[in-house]
């Protein structure tokens, strides 16, 4: 759509506001790895002998192995290490702004992609009756003008995470967020804003304000900062556009992007390294691009469940249970693997086949919501969750 008319009042105020850190919004960026990523081959427990026994053909060699170092685990703490395809993330780890929560996931036992993703995005494992998503509920009430771009998703449709009573918008691409015919756009705007239906009127107002803002963003050529080099592809492009909107100071508070294709039942090592290289390179570019805004941003990654500890007969892995989550940002106390490691011995595995969950994913998200965004009502953000601050892993500076 093409923006019509002058910028809304809240935007005029934002554009002329002081850029002091105290006045800037705290921003959460959530990334969903759809398909159930293999956490054991993303952050490898190379210090546990059982890992190598369970994965004779899918194992990542130990850092001390006398082979090509580019194919070996990148050691983090003597027990865990990055997949070598995540080399781009090591400098952020070393700088203390990237942390890992291992053996994290949902307490619900489902192995259905659809159900597990729905539970994670709603924030209500095992409950299908709850409407809306955790990111929408995490937004704090606003005083004064509200940005129509405070909650955004990069994609063709609004994800479950962002659905709910607070305004949110899905943007497939900043470059294509427009209507070619300005006359048609004017007609639609008049229809929306003149209707007696308050819902339609409100939706129309927010939509056209968003269009007006994005038109201004589109009109400014964008060049990533600080030598940030985004890989090609949809995921990198999504992060680049989120960085562009954050730096444009248009009121973004929460942002969502996803990356599909992690369901590696067959020949996992043919696909996983390239995906991780793209994933890590995109996150590193985003981090560099943010520059001095890093102190206001926390990125958290998740996947609906992990993969089986033991490889299958087709050099892949099947649907598992616990997984790994990354947390990255200026407020993150990085350079550490958080969470209780359950072990990979047969009696330690969930249902004798999967890495067991020792950190509820809501404890990870809840810590970011409470201690970064500032919404302390965790029980409302995650209905039915019985945990609280006592379950946080302590990866954020308070």
Task: Please explain how this structure is put together.
The protein is α/β, with parallel strands linked by helices and 398 residues long. The protein has one domain (21-391): 3-Layer(aba) Sandwich (Alkaline Phosphatase, subunit A). It has helices spanning 9-15, 49-54, 90-94, 113-122, 134-138, 182-194, 198-218, 234-247, 268-290, 361-373, 378-381, and strands at residues 27-33, 43-44, 74-75, 81-82, 98-105, 151-154, 169-171, 254-259, 297-302, 323-329, 337-338, 359-360. The strands form two sheets. Strands 1, 5, 6, 7, 8, 9, 10, 11 and 12 form a nine-stranded mixed sheet that branches. It has a three-stranded antiparallel sheet with strand order 2-4-3, with no helix packed on it. A hairpin with a 5-residue loop joins strand 3 and strand 4. The longest helix has 23 residues, at 268-290. It is globular.
Helix content: 25-40%
Q: Give the CATH class.
A: Alpha Beta
Biggest β-sheet strands, sense, barrel = 9 strands, mixed
| Sheet/helix structural class | alpha/beta
What is the beta-strand fraction? 5-15%
Q: How would you describe this structure in keywords?
A:
Alkaline Phosphatase, subunit A, alpha/beta, nine-stranded mixed sheet
